[in-house]
Write a structure and sequence with these properties.
It is built from two helices and twelve strands. It is α+β, with helices and mostly antiparallel strands. A hairpin with a 4-residue loop joins strand 9 (125-131) and strand 10 (136-140). The longest helix is centred in the last third of the chain and has 19 residues, at 163-181.
Length: 185
């Protein structure tokens, strides 16, 4: 009997969702463009809870683009503090420190967009901009040398479950399956 309770306890511990301790990695995509970035916060199970998340601009990456020059490029920001509000299923608005896009949330924050710039070898600027409301996104020339965006569309944003949480959940499910097969449970 004691063995059975111990096995149940171990199985339950392995199956409980464990909050991640690292930052959250997010997949983003729109039109022909896709990439990742990290934010502060922790996943609960495989989902991100409702909260404001600050984007770590040093982790912004493009993984697919209509133009290969954008994949692997270095991106910078003009305003370091950028982020978004997540309602549990999607972003409801993006924000950045400073900036000129009203309405202002506080003395140094504006709603409206988060911007990530790169400078091409030709010296031209390109910006990936995530916009509120919508959410929508666009790839464009922020100096208005080209008035129309190169790509624009609805933004898809989703947290990527931590590999450790997936592995731990799989181990727990495997243990329960093994115990049931042995008829210990």
């Amino acid at each position: 009997m004691m063995k059975r309770h111990l096995l149940l306890y171990v199985a339950a511990v392995l199956l409980l969702p464990v909050p991640a301790v690292a930052n959250i990695t997010w997949d983003w995509s729109f039109s022909t463009e896709a990439g990742t970035f990290e934010t502060d916060g922790a996943l609960v199970g495989a989902s991100a809870p409702e909260a404001n998340y600050k984007i770590d601009s040093s982790t912004f990456a493009v993984t697919a683009s209509h133009n290969a020059v954008f994949v692997g490029a270095t991106y910078v920001v003009s305003q370091e503090t950028q982020g978004f509000h997540w309602d549990g299923t999607q972003p409801t608005f993006f924000w950045r420190s400073g900036g000129a896009l009203p309405p202002y949330v506080g003395p140094t924050t504006s709603l409206g967009s988060s911007n990530f710039f790169t400078i091409l070898s030709s010296g031209e600027y390109r910006s990936y901009t995530f916009l509120s409301p919508g959410p929508t996104a666009k790839l464009w020339d922020p100096h208005y040398q080209v008035p129309d965006p190169f790509a624009i569309g609805p933004l898809s944003l989703a947290p990527i479950p931590a590999p450790g949480a997936i592995l731990l959940g799989s181990i727990g499910a495997g243990c329960v399956s093994w115990l049931r097969r042995r008829r210990s449970l």
